[in-house]
Amino acid sequence: MDHDIRYNQTIIRYQDGQLIETTDDYVTEFPLTVVVNGHEFATVICSPNHLEELILGFLASEGVIFKRDDLIRFEVDEQRGYAYIEVNKDIQQASYLSTKRLVASCCGKSREFYFQNDAAIAKTSMTTIHITPEQILHMMAQLQAHSQTFIATGGLHNAAISDGKDFYVHRQDIGRHNALDKLYGYCIQRHISVRDKILIFSGRMSSEILIKAAKIGVGMIISKSAPTTLAVQLAQDLNITAVGFVRENHFNIYSHPERIVGTPSNPMPS
């Protein structure tokens, strides 16, 4: 059973020249140690909900598994904060099991093995999806509407995966990578193809987020915030459409605009 990802307690607030007693919500931070084939693989600092999805997405994005059927054992002990995984291959000698690591919830270069296996796992997109500007604005509006815990706490990243029409799933976490892993895990659990799906994200579109999108296998990522130069370069190289600053009635397209109906490379039908 998922734990509550927000906590309320009495605090002292300074406001308008006075110190007053009130209550405040803040997010729960939860360490989850993942043990693979008897070896501690990583400790993920996360929000304690949708943990099975998180583990599946995390292991798939790191190349430990490729599908749900690769797992022989999958047990989560939420009370102790451990996940016990057995996979149908010997990974004891793999380079990514050489040392135990902490996967932090902070932004920036939070994973020490960031460059070691990304190139082998990231996929060049083969998507054939085409969407309208109105669909982009609608998906971001949906993300905002589902972000009530962020509004209450200010401490979460929000992400969703969609086909731009009927399919839409939202997840949130203190770690931006974790939110995306939960979405990936959701699709793995249910054997949902990600090829023609879109990631919707609340935060900055960094190179790490772009690589995570490529590992998942989507062909488009849209963000409320700005991209970085390296993220745009990677999006160009990996055939991913990157859309940033999606706010109210405007957005910027940084790579592969041909998937957006109405652009010069994909004009509206006459």
UniProtKB/TrEMBL annotation:
Which Gene3D superfamilies does the protein's record reference? 3.10.20.10, Cytidine Deaminase, domain 2
| Residues annotated as catalytic | 107 (cysteine persulfide intermediate)
**Domain of life, per lineage:** Bacteria
One Gene Ontology BP term is:
Mo-molybdopterin cofactor biosynthetic process
Q: Which Pfam families match?
A: FdhD-NarQ
Q: Where in the cell is it found?
A: Cytoplasm
Keyword terms of this UniProt record = Cytoplasm, Molybdenum cofactor biosynthesis
GO MF terms held by the record: sulfur carrier activity; sulfurtransferase activity
Q: Does the keyword Calcium apply?
A: no
What sections of the protein cross the membrane? Answer: none
List the GO cellular component terms: cytoplasm
PANTHER family linked to this entry: FORMATE DEHYDROGENASE, SULFUR CARRIER PROTEIN FDHD
Main role? Required for formate dehydrogenase (FDH) activity. Acts as a sulfur carrier protein that transfers sulfur from IscS to the molybdenum cofactor prior to its insertion into FDH.
Membership in a protein family: Belongs to the FdhD family.
Name recorded for this polypeptide: Sulfur carrier protein FdhD
Q: Which organism is it from?
A: Staphylococcus rostri
